[in-house]
Design a protein that fits this description.
The complex is a heterodimer of chains A (278) and B (236).
Chain A lengths: L1 H22 L5 E7 H5 L2 H13 L2 E7 L1 H9 L5 E4 L2 H9 L3 E17 L12 H11 L3 E3 L5 H12 L4 H4 L4 E3 L4 H11 L2 E5 H6 L6 E5 L6 E9 L9 H12 L1 H9 L1 E2 L2 E2 L2 E2 L7
Parallel strand pairs in A: 1-2, 1-3, 5-6, 5-7
Antiparallel strand pairs in A: 3-9, 4-7, 4-8, 4-9, 4-12, 10-11
Helix pairs in contact in A: 11-12
Chain B lengths: L7 H9 L2 H35 L5 H11 L4 H12 L14 H37 L4 H11 L1 H17 L2 H7 L9 H10 L3 H32 L4
Helix pairs in contact in B: 1-2, 2-5, 2-6, 2-7, 3-5, 4-5, 4-8, 5-6, 5-7, 5-8, 7-10, 9-10
The chains are: A alpha/beta (278), B mainly alpha (236).
């Protein structure tokens, strides 16, 4: 009797291992560390099948904040990074972890807030004025607080508005340390303002009482770049297939696929691989 | 915006339409969880029984440690395994990070203490009942382990189910070591986390209901099987 249980147990382990190896009988793939905004906006779901169909290379995307994505790449756990914080990207290159940075596309940030608009900034075009009003009125503001691209952009905007955040921040400024979607959920629940990239905002399904209050300021510009992780640092980097993905993203085909991605007729990302200064 | 009801139609369209995807997520969840719990059971049941019966110095300390490990925060376990399996970590050459195997390892680590601790308690209780009988048969503590495990098998099913519950409900560790990659390491719980972050709360809730239903089915099966087994062996 006892022996039978062991036989059964051993058999189930074998079956499990069998299932496992079947699941891993995948061939060519690359790992891309990217941002929550590209995933939460649904862009990758639209782009990747076309690339895979053309090249046979499967793309595995790990969606993290820009800071964490760059860190994943620094440990050699990704082949390509696709993020949006130029200063951090240039630092990554300078430290020798990346080969070359390619601009891919841009969208813009928007300030979203509740209908009640306690800071009275709705309809504004100047993000500095809006942030000043939020800080003056101590209106609730939710910050990503996760070293993501959006978080660094937010910190830069406070600075550009001449606001000394460490000095003025109080209970109204809530750092939650989470991704874009979770931050929007929180802002909705707290009737607070927050900064979002437009792509995630358009795709976001739980807007509730939130709406765009400030947009169109050129300081709200949000550039995405892509880099191959340096194979000289990590021999495990799949340089050829990773570069193939980058080449495709910046090719006319990849660029038009990005431009074609729309939700409710709205274009979420604008390709600009041809702009060397981006 | 409609927000109240759980969208039955969207669950159905997930299951049928683009369903290969969704079915894959369910299968992966089951595969990861069941493998982890099976392995943890194979290691944990004998280990727990041994801990119940064999006397050695430091035994009490180990029991307290194992009991403490039942409360090991999944996110800490996940981080530790992430650092081990990362290309820059000691086991980086295995290339296991962001694979289903990494998720199985994480769940194994989380489930093992639960199985060891609960098995120890069960077997220790049973031993007080069996001690005289076993000694009169000339069986020492070590040699009694298989007999005790066998006789406690119906109680131990609950132990395994406790482990299974921990594994199937877990999200913190597998999110870190698996990476929630679509089609490869995306499970029920990480999908729920993702849909929540996309703001699709009804869909996230619907996935939660599907997960709970699966757990209900597994638990019902386990309960039924052990009931039938108990009846046949005259232990009901």
């Amino acid at each position: 009797m006892l022996r039978r249980t062991f036989v059964t147990a051993a058999a189930s382990v074998l079956v499990a291992i069998g299932l496992l190896s079947a699941a891993e009988a995948e061939d060519r793939f690359i790992t891309v560390a990217s941002t929550t905004s590209t995933q939460d906006s649904g862009l990758f779901d639209a782009l990747l099948p076309a690339f895979t169909a053309k090249t046979g290379i499967i793309v595995k995307v790990i969606a993290q904040g820009t800071g964490q994505a760059l860190d994943t790449a620094r440990r050699g756990d990704a082949d390509v990074v696709f993020v949006h914080a130029k200063a951090q990207e240039l630092k990554f290159l300078e430290d020798g972890f990346g080969v070359k940075r390619y601009p891919v596309m841009y969208n813009d940030f928007v300030v979203v807030g509740p209908k009640s608009d306690p800071a009275g900034i709705a309809g504004g075009k100047d993000v500095a004025v809006a942030l000043k009003a939020i800080a003056d009125k101590k209106a609730p503001f939710v910050s990503r607080g996760d070293k993501s691209g959006t978080h660094s952009a937010e910190l830069k905007l406070w600075k550009a508005a001449d606001i000394d955040l460490p000095a003025v921040r109080g209970e109204w400024y809530r750092e939650i340390g989470q991704g874009m979607g979770a931050t929007l959920n929180t802002a909705n629940a707290m009737a607070a303002y927050t900064l979002s990239d437009r792509g995630t905002w358009i795709a976001f399904a739980n807007k509730g009482d939130l709406g765009i209050v400030v947009e169109g300021d050129k300081k709200l510009f949000n550039q995405y770049g892509v880099m191959l992780v340096n194979p000289a640092k990590f021999s495990t980097v799949k340089a050829e297939d990773g570069q193939a993905f980058i080449d495709w993203l910046v090719s006319p085909e990849g660029q038009s696929a990005i431009a074609a991605y729309r939700i409710d007729g709205q274009q979420l990302f604008f390709p600009n691989a041809n702009d060397p200064n981006a | 915006m409609q927000q109240d009801a759980i969208p039955i139609s969207s669950i159905l369209s997930l299951l049928t339409g683009d369903g290969g995807n969704f079915l894959g997520i369910i299968l992966l969840s089951l595969q990861v969880t069941i493998t982890a719990v099976t392995c943890a059971g194979l290691v944990g049941l004998p280990l727990g029984a041994g801990l119940a019966l064999v006397r050695f110095p430091g035994r009490t300390v180990i029991i307290v440690l194992v009991n403490t490990m039942m409360g090991f925060p999944p996110v800490v376990a996940g981080l530790a395994i992430f650092l081990l399996l990362s290309r820059s970590g000691p086991l980086g050459d295995l290339g296991l990070l962001f694979t289903p195997k990494a998720m199985m390892i994480a769940q194994f680590v989380l489930v093992l203490p639960i199985i060891v601790a609960l098995t120890r308690q069960t077997i220790e209780d049973l031993w007080t009942e069996y001690q005289d009988h076993m000694t009169s048969l000339g069986a020492g503590r070590l040699r009694s382990i298989p007999t005790l495990l066998w006789d406690a098998r119906f109680s131990l099913v609950t132990t395994l189910l406790a482990g299974l519950g921990r594994a199937s409900a877990e999200v913190g560790a597998i999110l870190i070591v698996g990476g929630n990659i679509a089609g490869f390491t995306r499970t029920m719980t990480t999908s729920i986390a993702l849909e929540t972050s996309k703001g699709d709360l009804p869909l996230a809730m619907a996935l939660g209901v599907v997960l709970m239903s699966l757990t209900l089915v597994i638990n019902s099966l386990a309960f039924g099987i052990s009931r039938v087994g108990a009846r046949f062996s005259g232990k009901s």
